[in-house]
Amino acid sequence: MVIGASVLCFGTAVHAGETLDAVKKKGFVQCGVHTGLPGFGIANSQGVWEGIDVDMCKAIAAAVFGDATKYKTTPVTTQQRFTALQSGEIDVLTRNTTATLTRDTTLGLMSAGINYYDSQGIMVKKELGVTSAKELDTATVCVQPGTTTELNLADWFRANGLKFTPVVINSPDEAMRSYEGGRCDAFTTDKSGLATVRTTLPNPDDHVILPEDFSKEPLGPMVRQGDDEWFMVVRWALNAMLEAEEYGITSQNIDEMLKSENPNVQRILGVTGEIGKGLGIDNKWAYNVIKQVGNYGESFERNIGMSSPMKLERGLNAQWKDGGLMYGWPIR
């Protein structure tokens, strides 16, 4: 769905407190997703959307409706994504989007959590014989506009006393074609994105992701400011997936875990307490998220982990007890 710049108007945005009621009334969650990034958000051969960011959308639907299928997707480009959320075209942006101070303070939007810790990198063809980005002085680099990537690239080259020529291309597919066709010496985006798009090239091994990290890229869902109730539903749907992994609750063993005597597990699954009341949803909301979508580790492994075509290691996205940064907030 193409969303023009003309709808960038805060007056049309959903007013504070209304999003959850509006979502319930229409019967589904409308999520802004990537136009096509393997592992994160892409339509499969049957036209069904899948990926770690799509799972985030499904988790929100499961929390609100008890049914993870009650969602719809709106593919949005880097330039369309914020306009779509500001205007109310979508209810939540579940598209690899970096949380930054500027975005939280100037767009009328806010990050609801982090579902993937990333960093920006740069990819070149192996035939160039380049082993470091510091060898790319005067290179041409394909980059998407309206992204933190564009600014990070300029900052890094300037900080290292290097010059480059940006080739700004809106579509990620077109950017990759331009890179592959030789219009650019290099292509830059988040390293997860580089890893996934490399798998789509005719000869993936002919391309190298250089070791430098240009930035910190904490990626996660975003919502409109001023609607705390909806913000909390999105935030806690993510935390439910994180907490479930920490406590060993999976989509496969969850019904057995209902019998657990662990008070934390009992609260997460709604066996005890009123964990849905404050969110305005059913007490079994976290149970429904885990049963129908899985815990965070299941989602990661299925979409981008070592058993997927992406073959990405957990790294920073491992649980905090395993040396990563994923730390679920207590559901109590």
Can you describe this structure?
- With 332 residues, this protein is α/β, with parallel strands linked by helices.
- 33% of the residues lie in helices and 16% in strands.
- It has 12 helices and 14 strands.
- It has helices spanning 19-26, 52-65, 81-86, 101-106, 148-159, 172-180, 191-198, 228-246, 254-257, 263-268, 285-292, 296-303; strands at residues 29-33, 42-43, 49-50, 71-75, 92-93, 109-111, 116-118, 120-125, 139-143, 164-168, 186-190, 207-209, 217-219, 222-224.
- Strands 10-9-11-8-12 form a 5-stranded mixed beta sheet, with helices on both faces. A 3-stranded parallel beta sheet has the order 4-1-5. It has a two-stranded antiparallel sheet with strand order 2-3.
- Strand 2 (42-43) and strand 3 (49-50) form a beta hairpin.
- The longest helix is centred in the last third of the chain and has 19 residues, at 228-246.
- It starts with 18 loop residues before the first helix and ends in a 29-residue tail after the last helix.
- Residues 1-16 have low confidence and may be disordered.
Defining key terms:
332 residues; alpha/beta; 5-stranded mixed β-sheet; 3-stranded parallel β-sheet; 14 strands; 33% helix
Q: Mind sketching the topology for me?
A:
Elements: H1 19-26, E1 29-33, E2 42-43, E3 49-50, H2 52-65, E4 71-75, H3 81-86, E5 92-93, H4 101-106, E6 109-111, E7 116-118, E8 120-125, E9 139-143, H5 148-159, E10 164-168, H6 172-180, E11 186-190, H7 191-198, E12 207-209, E13 217-219, E14 222-224, H8 228-246, H9 254-257, H10 263-268, H11 285-292, H12 296-303
Parallel strand pairs: 1-4, 1-5, 9-10, 9-11
Antiparallel strand pairs: 2-3, 6-14, 7-13, 8-11, 8-12
Domain Solute-binding protein family 3/N-terminal: 28-257
Keywords: Signal, Transport
Protein name: Amino acid ABC transporter substrate-binding protein
